[in-house]
Amino acid sequence: MAATQWPITGPCATLEDIRARTAAFGAARGRSAAYTPRNLMLALVGEVGELAECFQWKGDGGPMGVPVAAAASGDAASPSVHGTSGTGSAVACTGNDAAAALLPAGGGSRLGPDWSAEEVTHLGEELSDVLMYTIKLADTCGVDLPAVVARKMRLNELKYPVAGGEAEKTADS
Question: Which helix (H) or strand (E) holds 166?
């Protein structure tokens, strides 16, 4: 399956765009004083729990939710998913359909046939919440997130070298 290609332009195309938008959102609503590292971490944990709920009681399929039997037989077809706009969230970055963002180029849900358009949209919203809180926490703590990610990737590359075309171990997150 081809990798997801994200846009490189738009109101929330970079981590800095998201940081600035979430900072402005909080400031406009008088929430800046409440954005302590402790409060942000607890909010982030709550959002991760909501993200986990999206996967609760879903089958353990093969790659990207394709049932193991279908993946083994090569029959990975699943119904096309069409959803409604996900712009009802606190920070609306694009007019793109959240469900469509998780669809492979040929259509059908990357998550498998047991995911409805509404569930895919909800998943995108929860991922967005986790990302926004992560960025806000990093900003509040004075962590240069892009620099730390680049450093961590270099450390992972050293710790888990590619041998014979495949990684010897799974990289840390």
Answer: strand 166-167
Question: CA 171 to CA 159: how far, in whole Å?
Answer: 8
Q: pTM for the whole thing?
A: 0.69
DSSP line for 41-79: HHHHHHHHHHHHHHHTT----SGGG--HHHHHHT-----
pLDDT in tens, 102-158: 554 445 568 888 888 999 999 999 999 999 999 999 999 999 999 999 999 999 999
Residue 126 and residue 97: Cα distance in Å, rounded? 15
Note whether 94 and 11 are within 8 A (CB): yes
Q: Please check whether residue 11 is in contact with residue 95, taking contact to mean a CB–CB distance below 8 angstroms.
A: no
Side-chain-facing half-sphere of 115: CA atoms under 13 Å? 32
Which helix (H) or strand (E) segment holds residue 27: the answer is helix 15-28
Question: CA 111, CA 113: separation in Å to the nearest integer?
Answer: 7
Task: Copy the structure tokens of residue 7.
Answer: 């846009």
Name, in order, each residue with C-beta under 8 angstroms of 14's C-beta and a sequence gap of 6 or more: none
In Å, how far are 12, 96, 102, 132, 147 from 99, measured between CA atoms? 17, 9, 6, 19, 30
How many Å apart are CA 129 and CA 135, to the nearest integer? 10
